[in-house]
From TrEMBL:
Alphabetical list of InterPro entries matching this protein: B30.2/SPRY_sf (IPR043136), ConA-like_dom_sf (IPR013320), Ubq-SigPath_Reg (IPR050618)
Protein name per the record: Ran-binding protein 9
Organism lineage: Eukaryota, Metazoa, Chordata, Craniata, Vertebrata
SUPFAM superfamilies recorded: Concanavalin A-like lectins/glucanases
Recorded superkingdom: Eukaryota
Organism of origin: Takifugu flavidus
Cross-referenced PANTHER family: RAN BINDING PROTEIN 9-RELATED
Length: 179
C-alpha cells in the first residue's frame, strides 16, 4: 500500500509542478506582450494567441492547444484548400504586428499560404484569392521564402503595419495538390 501511496504522491506532485510551470510561462508571455504592445488593452481587444477551432474550414484539424494545424482534405484541386483564422483579429492599437509560423512539413505536393484576411472571407480559399478590401498573403512553395511588395518580407514570419480601421486576422491555409 505504501508504494501505491508514494507513487500517487509523485504523480500529483508532477501534475502540480507542470501546472505551475504552465502558469509561469503564461505569465512571462503576458508580460512580454505588454512590453511589445503597450497600447493594447487585452481586456478590450485580446491579441491572437492560437488558431480558432470555430473559424476554420472542415479540412483543417487543430492540435496542441490549437497551436498546430494539419490538413485532412482530399487535395485533388485548388478548391480543396482549407484555412483557419486566429482566435482574435490583430488589434489596430498594435501599430506593427509580428507573428511567426513554423512549417513542419508541406507534404509531397503540399501548398501553404500565410496571410491576413477580414472576417467573412471564405475559409476554403488561399488568403488573397477571395475579393476583399483588406487582404495580404504570401504563398510558400518549395523555398519557403517570399518577399512581398509594400516593404513586407516573409521568410516564415510576417510583420505588418496596421491602419486604425484594420480588423484582420492571421490566416493559415493548407492544401495538398496531386499534380
Amino acid at each position: 500500500m505504501s508504494g501505491q501511496s508514494s507513487g500517487s504522491g509523485f504523480l500529483m506532485s508532477a501534475v502540480v509542478h507542470g501546472d505551475s510551470l504552465l502558469n509561469e510561462q503564461e505569465k512571462e508571455l503576458s508580460q512580454r506582450l505588454r512590453r511589445l504592445y503597450p497600447a493594447v488593452n487585452e481586456n478590450e481587444t485580446p491579441l491572437p494567441r492560437s488558431w480558432s477551432p470555430k473559424d476554420k474550414f472542415r479540412y483543417v484539424g487543430l492540435s496542441q492547444n490549437n497551436l498546430r494545424v494539419h490538413y485532412k482534405g482530399h487535395g485533388k484541386t485548388p478548391k480543396d484548400a482549407a484555412s483557419v483564422r486566429a482566435t482574435h483579429p490583430i488589434p489596430a492599437a498594435c501599430g506593427v504586428y509580428y507573428f511567426e509560423v513554423t512549417i513542419i512539413s508541406k507534404g509531397r505536393d503540399g501548398y501553404i499560404g500565410i496571410g491576413l484576411s477580414a472576417q467573412g472571407v471564405s475559409m476554403n480559399r488561399l488568403p488573397g484569392e477571395t475579393p476583399s478590401p483588406a487582404c495580404l498573403s504570401a504563398r510558400l512553395s518549395a523555398c519557403l521564402s517570399v518577399c512581398l511588395s509594400a516593404a513586407v518580407c516573409l521568410s516564415v514570419c510576417l510583420s505588418i503595419c496596421l491602419s486604425a480601421c484594420c480588423c484582420l486576422s492571421a490566416c493559415l491555409t493548407v492544401c495538398r495538390l496531386s499534380v
